[in-house]
Amino acid sequence: MAERLDVLIVGAGFAGMYMLLKSREQGLKVQAIEAGSGVGGTWYWNRYPGARVDIQSLDYSYGFDARLEQEWRWSERYAPQPELLAYANHVADRFDLKKDIRFKTRVTAAHWDAKADGWNVTLDTGEVIPARFVVMATGCLSVPTDVTFPGLDDYKGTIYRTSRWPHEGVDFSEQRVGIIGTGSSAIQSIPIIAESAAHLTVFQRTPNYSTPARNGPIPEEEFQEWLKDPRAFRARSRYTPTGFWNDPREDAIATQTPPDEIKAELERRWAWGGFRILSAFADQAIDPEANKIVADFIAEKIREQVKDPKVAEMLTPKDHPFGTKRPCVDTNYYATYNRDNVELVDLRSDPLETFTATGIRTKNRSFDFDAVVLATGFDAMTGAIERVDIRGVNGETIKEHWAAGPETYLGLMVAGFPNLFLITGPGSPSVLTNMINSIEQHVDYVADIIASLNASQAGRIEATREAEQAWTDHVDQSAAMTLFPRANSWYMGANVPGKPRRFLAYTGGLDVYSDICNAVRDKGWEGFVIARGDQVLRASHEFTSFPPPPENMAPHIMEMAMARVEAWNKEHGRV
Ligand code: NAP
Known about the structure:
By secondary structure, this protein is α/β, with parallel strands linked by helices. Helices cover 32% and strands 17% of the residues. A hairpin with a 3-residue loop joins strand 13 and strand 14 (359-362). The protein starts with a strand and ends with a helix.
C-alpha cells in the first residue's frame, strides 16, 4: 500500500487547488487526484462555444493572495472559458501545485478504516492510498445526467455534449445543427453556434429566464479602483447572501411600490445586466405576487427582443417563478431567434419521439442534422459524491445515507463519515452563490478544523446525527420559506429521474452561513465528536447556532414565510 497521506483531495478544480495549497501551507502531506488531464474543473470540461462565467470576474477569482490579485488582468467583465482555464493554470504554476496532483486518475472508492482513524482510498488504477482526511472537491455540476433518447445509437451524425466538449473545438460551418436544452449552457452556446452553422434548430422543453450580461472590457478606471483595495472589495462580496455584491434593497416591497417606480428600478437593473434583477425587491423570492411583477417585466423584454410574437411566446417561461430555476445570463440569446437560420421547436407541443439515422423525429416533424448538441444538464451536487463508493463507520455508503436526499451537517460533513469533508456540498449556500467565495470560506474552515484537531492530537472529527438532522431540517425549512420548491429544477433534484426531491442548497445566504460556521467553531465545534482511537476527546451533540430571524423583513412577508415553515413542519412531523 502507498504511503499514508494527511489529506487526499478528490478533484483539482478551484476548490481542490486551494485545498491543496492550504494543506501544504499547514505542513500536511497532501495529494489531489484529478480525472482530467489538467486543472480547472468546470472550466477544464465545459469548453462549448460561448462558455463564460456569469459572475463578474473581479468577483469570481481567488482572494487568498494579494500578489496574485495584482498580477492577473481579466480581459472582460465575464471571462470566457479559455481565460478561466488559463487563470487556473497560472495559479497552479504560480504555486507549484501540479507536482502534487495526479491527473487522468479517478477515485473509485473510499472506505473508513477505524483502526487507523482514516480512509483507504481506491483509484481506478487499482492502487489504494491511505489518507487521514479525504476532501471531496468534486464540483457541484461535474457529472452530466445520463439522459438518453430512443434511437440515439442509430444516429449517424456527430453528438456533442456541452459538458464534454472536444478540446480541439468544433467547426459547425456549413452544418445543420440541432441542440437539445435551453439551460445556461445552451443559452450561452446557441448565439455562437448560430453564427457559424448553416442552420440551427433549438429543441426546447422548458423556457428559462435570461438576462443580458452586458459583457465588455473592464474599463481601466474601474480596474485601477479595484486594484487599490481588493481586500475591501472581497470583504463586501463575501458578506452578502450571494457572495457577490448585487445591490440588494432589503426594504423595497414590490407589491407596495407604485408601477412607475417598479418599472424604473427594473429598467435600471436590466440595463446594468447580469443577476442584478434578482435582488430588485425584498419580497420577490417569497411572495408570488411580487415575483410575478418581475417575471412580467422580463416577459415584456423577451417580446421586445424577439420579432415573431409566436416565438416570443414560446420563449416566455410560464411554469416557474423567476429565480426558482437558476436564471441564465446571455449575450444576444433572444435576438438569435430573429436570424433566418435559427428555428425553435417546442417539445411540449411536439414531443421528441426518436433519433433516426439522419437526425431527430418529433411527433409532427422530421429533421436532418449533421450534428446534435446535448446541453441537457448535470446530476447536481450529489452526483459526483455518490458515484464514489464511500463507506463510513458502519459500512453504509453515502448514497444509502442519502436515500431520501442529501443530509449533511453544514453541507460540510456527514454523520458516520468522519474526516470526510465536502467542499460546497449539499446543504451549504454553494450553487446559490459566487462559487469561489464559497470555496474559499469552506476550505479555510476545513483547514481550521484540521489545525484544531492537530493541536489537540485528535485523530478524527465526526458530525453527530443530531446535528446533521437539525441542520438538514433548517436547510429544508429555509427553502420552504421561499418559492424555490415550486420549480422542477436541478436545485430540487427534479432533472434526474428517481432522484429524491429536496432543495440541495442552503438559502440562508453566505453571510449568515459564515456566521453560523464561526459560531459552531467558537463554541468548541458544536455538533461534532472529536476523538482519537477509542478515546473521545470532546463531544458536543447538538447544533444550536441557528441564525436570528432576518431583521428587515416586512411583517407580511415574514408571516408568509413562517406559514410555509409551519406547513413544512406539519408535513414532516416536526413541532
Ligand atoms: P440545465 O440548466 O439543467 O439545462 C438542461 C436543459 O436540458 C434544460 O433546458 C432541460 O429542460 C433540457 N433537457 C434535459 N433533459 C432533456 C430531455 N430528455 N429532453 C429535452 N430536454 C431536456 O443544464 P446546463 O445548461 O448545463 O446548466 C446547469 C447549471 O450549470 C446552470 O444552471 C448553472 O448553474 C451552471 N452553468 C453556469 C454557467 C456560467 O456560469 N456561465 C454556464 C453554464 C452552466 P427542462 O428544463 O425541461 O428539464
